Amino acid sequence: xxxxxxxxxxxxxxxxxxxxxxxxxxxxxxxxxxxxxxxxxxxxxxxxxxxxxxxxxxxxxxxxxxxxxxxxxxxxxxxxxxxxxxxxxxxxxxxxxxxxxxxxxxxxxxxxxxxxxxxxxxxxxxxxxxxxxxxxxxxxxxxxxxxxxxxxxxxxxxxxxxxxxxxxxxxxxxxxxxxxxxxxxxxxxxxxxxxxxxxxxxxxxxxxxxxxxxxxxxxxxxxxxxxxxxxxxxxxxxxxxxxxxxxxxxxxxxxxxxxxxxxxxxxxxxxxxxxxxxxxxxxxxxxxxxxxxxxxxxxxxxxxxxxxxxxxxxxxxxxxxxxxxxxxxxxxxxxxxxxxxxxxxxxxxxxxxxxxxxxxxxxxxxxxxxxxxxxxxxxxxxxxxxxxxxxxxxxxx
Length: 397
Fold this sequence. Notes:
Oligomer: single chain
């Protein structure tokens, strides 16, 4: 059986963290979201994967190549224009045979149990469904007599809380509905399926597996926390005397944890990092490769990506720092209650700190208010307090 992984989109609502990568390549738990998807498929014996790529496709191709390193055989199809997931599936159809196949959205964190439940429980064309507290962000599934009656995409009013996860088993006959669509019109798979749902007799599959989506930048903290559940204990770096490690903590090759550090898992620290001395790292924190955390700093529930430098005496809670962020001493980025406006909607955020885009330079003694989204390649001078959002390449003096 083959699987089609749809990974061509950017994820515009996740900017600035999709400035240089598609949503599926954002690292959580120190691995791209797409890597968890490939792993979930391979663990269920689905090793032939067709990956539809588009936006910043080079980042996907260079990471996965032919898939051999991940136990898979990966072929690629390019979607040059972002014309929706229906168009993406139609492009992939040329590499599909007359057998049933899986379709998986390439930007949600899933585990092997979800794929296993779909393979075990499928009856004809099937889709995995789950419940959501914010169904208006997804395709809401309307059921009738145990089958999918229709799918209401991003409803303006509440019509239910059962949503489509974007994970399907399709019989080969379903492909004609996608191949016959006008390619210049942007359509999602749900928009194609909804009018013919009753005709197809789509089976909803409930799962006990993991399905986590990141819609907005602050959602990455929750996804990272869940991704860390996939990690266990593994110490490959150098641990100096006087370091305390509790719970599941993984430390990569070439990393040095200096004396006086306290680390409480789940925590994942990548390769070639330098931590401490006297740094405190609290649960649900991941730190990417080549990152330096200078002495007397405190990190709690943070997603720190690669090649980041956090200056001494810094305090970060519920923060996301993208690749290449450089912060001098005394950065304060606490968690608190804040409000953020995205897509003309106002969100109240209660557990979010600073969200900082790649290659941003932060001076000493800077305070970033909770919920602030700092764009990529910004420059913030010494002693500044930042509140609210900054566009890419902003300068604050």
